[in-house]
Design goal:
With 116 residues, this protein is mainly α. The chain has helices at 19-33, 58-65, 75-86, 92-104, 109-115.
Length: 116
């Protein structure tokens, strides 16, 4: 914005909020007004607000992932990653839909039963 010669006057929309309440209000306002990068509104925010990166813009994701591309992970790091992924509890409905999608894609019965 500054490079384009535009200025922005900040306004205070709420006072006396806890941190969690402020994050929730920020997310509500961004959702209400919309983000320009998503084509949903005029705001120049690159995330949905709140603490951390919620739904970051594509160029933000690319900037975060670029240093990781082509990087070799140690066997120990791969083991931790594998344990984290396979240790997750899956909702039965998600697994059922995944198996049904395999059916639709023409993969065999053996493949489908190994997933369930």
């Amino acid at each position: 914005m500054i490079r384009a010669g535009l200025t922005c006057k900040p306004i205070r929309v709420a006072e006396g909020l806890t941190e969690a309440e402020a994050y929730a209000e920020e997310m509500r306002l961004i959702a209400q007004h919309g983000r320009q990068d998503l084509g949903t509104g005029p705001l120049l925010n690159f995330t949905d607000g709140g603490s951390g990166l919620r739904n970051p813009a594509h160029h933000v994701r690319d900037a975060m992932s670029a240093p990781q591309r082509g990087k070799k992970r140690s066997a120990e790091a791969m083991a931790k990653l594998r344990a984290a992924i396979f240790g997750r509890k899956r909702d039965a409905g998600v697994t059922r839909r995944f198996v049904q999608n395999c059916t639709l894609s023409g993969q065999g019965l053996e493949h489908r039963t190994n997933l369930a």
